[in-house]
Amino acid sequence: MSKLYLDPKQVSRARRAASGIADSLQSFILERTTVAVERTVLRLYGLDGVDADFVPLPNVVVDQIKEGGQLARGAARYVINAAIQRGLTVQEIGEQVADGTLDLLEIPMADEATIREKGTELANASLERIRANRRKREEYLQTLGEGPQPYLYVIVATGNIYEDVVQAKAAARQGADIIAVIRSTGQSLIDYVPYGATTEGFGGTYATQENFRIMREALDEVGEEIGRYIRLCNYCSGLCMPEIAAMGALERLDVMLNDALYGILFRDINMQRTLVDQNFSRMINSFAGVIINTGEDNYLTTADAVEQAPAVLASQFINESLALRSGLPEEQMGLGHAFEMSPDLEDGFLLELAQAQMARELFPKAPLKYMPPTKHMTGNIFKGHVQDTLFNVVGAMTHQGIQLLGMMTEAIHTPLIHDRQIAIEGAKYVFHNMRRLGDEIEYKRDGRIVKRAHQVLGEATAILEEVEGIGMLEAISRGMFADVLRTMTGGKGLHGVVKRADDYFNPFETLLRVELGLEAITR
């Protein structure tokens, strides 16, 4: 029974509208592919490395096919054909394309059935590595266990992967459950994935497959030392969303930030490009057992948190519907929201509590990702620590799934190791002492908290029904989310979107549809 007395009929209206929005978008998505999707196919086949100019081999191969006007048929077709006709591995094909000795479009085509059979065979073998990673995670969880929810989520962001390892291990020993490695500033806007271990990121550390491997190995080591599995998080939003999702699956990441709307609104990535990329990336995340984090919390950094609350909820409903169409179960949907109302607002705590409790009731299986105050942090570390504590109290009372810990030095500098320790100690104190507080509380039917929840749900439902009527892409163009306007043809990456041909071939997508029970969702 809802503690907020939410009307089930209105909740059904909201979900019905979100489902209509998602259906319309899915039809649009499944008619298209992108350069990032095709590079992901090659990475899943095992293609890695860079050419003499440090251009990643997946980019080199996909660019050759695209420049030849054949990407609409799928990169897999031409790479698998070369493997059949020339007896080469996928890695050898990439290296020969890079050194100029192989043109994939000049090789005579094998018959369609042979290409599809070989492509599917190799794809199945590649997916087994991801299956093995999922089994390894489950084995660790059974033998080591993990901390209770809400998971304590902290960030490391030195720019140097080896220094990140030092800080991540310290945070794990201090009590963190999830370590998030922030990406270097601007990486989401580059249309390739950097290669190898990196030590010179700015504002974060580059997301590379080698960096993922290094950090995964370090967290397994410290997890075995302390007797608790430590989850690893990174970002797969941006122009390389599905590629980084694949890298995360191959290196056993556990949590990935994955939200097209975040990229559209806050990184000005073209909406067509990132919606297509998001669909395939979420299929990979689902198969790999990765929890996604969505970016609704970011709306509140550009717009008023009280006014934008209905848009945040509407976006959560849309993200849920889109995630289901990518095969992602509710248990892997870390839908985002944030404690971002002004501390000067009278009874702001009550409004925050209403929003968090409502999210918990509406998405009961989701490991909700709850973000700390950042917008209204001033550099006053004492007041900041109080703000973070109130945030933790709401998290405890409403049983959030993932608590991204605030730092008292927010707005001053990147947190130092002792800043993080203080944040973890404060959160553990609140969660331990208030573990079952939420179970003991009932809300007044005519009180401020209940009225606020009803207001936000009602306005969110109205937004969803309006968006269903005009279409999601048009709604974004009108600035209905976060007060940010984007257009269908604006932003970065549109050049990388291609309409699929009738004989388009992506064996990984086909296999994942079967694995995830999505066979009924077609173009």
From TrEMBL:
One Pfam family hit: Lys-AminoMut_A
Domain D-Lysine 5,6-aminomutase alpha subunit intervals: 4-510
Name the UniProt record assigns to this protein: Lysine 5,6-aminomutase subunit alpha
Phylogenetic placement of the source organism: Bacteria, Bacillati, Bacillota, Bacilli, Bacillales
